[in-house]
Amino acid sequence: MLTREQNELLVRTGPGTPMGELFRRYWIPALLAEELPEPDCAPVRVKLLSEKLVAFRDTQGRLGLIDEFCAHRGVSLWFGRNEECGLRCPYHGWKYDVSGQCIDLPSEGDDGPMKKRIRLKSYPCHERGGVIWTYMGPPAQQPPLPEFEWATVPATHRFVMKRWQDSNYLQAMEGGIDSSHVSFLHSGELHTDPLHKGTKGAEYQGDTNPVFEVVESAGGLMIGARRNANAGHYYWRITQWIMPWHTMIPPYGDNALNGHAWVPIDDENCWTWNMSHHPTRPLTKIELDAMNNGQGMYADMIPGTYRAAANKDNDYLIDRAAQKSGRYYNGVKGIAMQDASLQESMGPNADRTTENLTVTDRPIVLARRRLLDAALALQNNSPPPALDPVTHRVRSASFTRPTSVAFKDAAQGAIAAEAGVAPVSI
């Protein structure tokens, strides 16, 4: 378990907090590119790490992420007019460019001194992989852009979506590196979901007592969950956790590789990003239909929003008969909302001082420790890990190996993200 002080350090990510300062050193997935579809389209509210911002794409297609509120009298610029290379406050006409600089202040005229010194907080943005990324840290420390494989393959090879989650980022992320729960919580879906059924991976999840081996990697952790397979072999599932919140989920069969990023909106809510891709082929109609229809790790959404149709306000549409029959192990339909329902049930911030952890929780313990160490080291000017894009070029994997083969040897050749090379998956 954690002390109360350690728990608070991990979950608080606002400006000036140790973890918040750490997270601001990374490129952050802020918006789907589809949210700003064209020049001069409507601006979008963005809340990240407890900061209220507004994003817009200007007349020349440049991206801006600036303080939500006008420097004049605090009006929300979400109501602003996006026109002629700037966002104009509709109250008194003050106008800002993508850097946050005031470029028009009608009440003082073109030559007034005030306009030049008015500048809103702004953060750089870059579009990659269908996502608009932002960097919120010190400009001089801006790292290279991320190179996760899903963000670099052709658009036909990937599918990306996000979903609002009513919990702190940490309890959501911890679910993403916990392979032991799959044998229970998702046991019904593994044999019916089109992205899982019929695979050897789904079959071998019947072993409910996995053995974990975890090693530190340059980017975070490589987590191996070992289950019994056929005679003399183990079934291995390798999950990658890349600092500070990215996970890569072990694949099933020839289906797409999947991953998540859990990005704090504030200390009680987060964005659950879902990324699917295949390195060597376009996604199939079966895969795309399943993802669009809320299967696999995706969820049915309330139309026009990024909120799940099954949510805490309607008890996640729980079906007790389906729970009793085993169709849905906790009565909630869909892998995504099975996870979210339980993670949100812990409350906005889980109390980790009362936990009773076991050997299967070792990945979670080590991830917490790595985050804590990195946040404290940053206060002593030690650079965070996983800033080098080389650390992003890894994959998850699933395979069987003879029981005599050690974990590190079993993983060799399966975890490098190499262009044109198919993933290792069963």
What is the topology?
Layout (H helix, E strand, L loop, with lengths): L3 H8 L6 H6 L3 E6 L11 E5 L2 E7 L5 E5 L13 E2 L4 E2 L6 E2 L5 E3 L9 H4 L4 E2 L1 E4 L2 E5 L13 H4 L5 E8 L3 H8 L5 H4 L14 H5 L6 E6 L3 E9 L4 E10 L3 E4 L7 E8 L5 E8 L7 H8 L27 H6 L9 H11 L16 H17 L18 E6 L4 H5 L15
Antiparallel strand pairs: 1-11, 2-3, 3-4, 4-9, 5-6, 6-7, 7-8, 10-11, 12-18, 13-14, 14-15, 15-16, 15-19, 16-17, 17-18
Keywords:
426 residues; alpha+beta; 8-stranded antiparallel beta sheet; 19 strands; 20% helix
What would your notes on this structure say?
The model has no long low-confidence stretch (mean pLDDT 96). The chain is built from 12 helices and 19 strands. With 426 residues, the protein is of the alpha+beta class. 20% of the residues lie in helices and 24% in strands. Strands 12, 13, 14, 15, 16, 17, 18 and 19 form an 8-stranded antiparallel beta sheet that branches. It has a 4-stranded antiparallel beta sheet with strand order 2-3-4-9, with no helix packed on it. Strand 7 (95-96) and strand 8 (102-104) form a beta hairpin. The chain has helices at residues 4-11, 18-23, 114-117, 149-152, 169-176, 182-185, 200-204, 285-292, 320-325, 335-345, 362-378, 407-411, and strands at 27-32, 44-48, 51-57, 63-67, 81-82, 87-88, 95-96, 102-104, 122-123, 125-128, 131-135, 158-165, 211-216, 220-228, 233-242, 246-249, 257-264, 270-277, 397-402.
